[in-house]
Amino acid sequence: MQKVSVIIPTMKGREEMLKKLISTIPDDCEKIVVDDDDLLLAAKRNKGAKLATGKYLLFIDDDNYLEDGAIHWMVERFTSSVGVMGMVACYHDKKKRVADGGSMRNYLTGFTEGKFTNERVFDLLPWCYPVDEVANAFMIQREVFYDLGCFDEINFPIDLDEADFCKRAKDAGYQIVMNPKAICYHKSQTYSHIPDFRRPMNAYFMGRNRILYQRKHNHALHYACYVVLFMPVFVCFYLVSLLYRKKPSMIVHFIKGVFDGLQGRLENKYQKR
């Protein structure tokens, strides 16, 4: 197997999860743990990539662990036409239910739809299938990663950094695919059409980054249509969802993110990270 560098961004308090993940990574893979508390997710991923020596870079969050053979199947099915290949993530407590099977995005409205979410992984066809973007656990050829300019840690410090990279890869002519034979297990909440946030920071960046993504990847007319027609739908949908989730405290952070996204700003407390 060609050498694979596994890049794991982590943070304090996740030592046991990190230990379990590392125990499932084959010995012949290069393991790079990035635990710099001064960096947010995209910057951690970029820092890990700079230290990597493998032909393939596998980015995986620390709240996952791998099924036997997962990395083998990623390399086995990687071709020169593939820009990004995602692992299918199953719930850690529902071993064969899909938590994340990749996403499709409407580039005008900004809304996304998960592929095969909450379906049985046994029901998926055994070959790779196309998606618009991946998250959580995915592989990129090291050469392609640098050719496309790494993760945009300025505009997308967390949230949508993977989506932004996938869009740039697609624009460059590469395929974005999910590999259903490569399985990881993700310690995550049940995926739902009703949004939820764990931390104020996630609420802020969701409000901000959705708008910045649309501005970056659409021409002026499409972006204007988004702001006038679809952004209000996005904002209202999330506000109602947060009220439904009984998390009104998140609304302030979300709205702040929306205003900063429209103005192309980043809140001061995140700027040194």
Explain this structure.
- With 273 residues, the chain is an alpha/beta fold.
- It folds into 2 domains: 183 residues, Spore Coat Polysaccharide Biosynthesis Protein SpsA, Chain A, CATH 3.90.550; 72 residues.
- Helices cover 39% and strands 22% of the residues.
- The strands form 2 sheets. Strands 1, 2, 3, 4, 5, 6, 9, 10 and 11 form a 9-stranded mixed sheet that branches. A two-stranded antiparallel ribbon has the order 7-8.
- Strand 5 and strand 6 form a beta hairpin.
- Helix 6 packs antiparallel against helix 7 and helix 7 runs antiparallel to helix 8.
- The two termini are 36 Å apart.
- The model has no long low-confidence stretch (mean pLDDT 93).
Furnish the topology, listing elements before pairings.
Blueprint: E1 4-9, H1 15-23, E2 30-34, H2 41-51, E3 56-60, E4 64-66, H3 70-76, E5 82-91, E6 94-100, E7 103-105, E8 112-114, E9 129-130, E10 137-141, H4 142-147, H5 161-171, E11 175-186, H6 200-217, H7 220-244, H8 249-263, H9 268-271
Parallel strand pairs: 1-2, 1-3, 5-11
Antiparallel strand pairs: 3-10, 4-11, 5-6, 5-10, 7-8, 9-11
Structural descriptors:
alpha/beta; nine-stranded mixed beta sheet; two-stranded antiparallel sheet
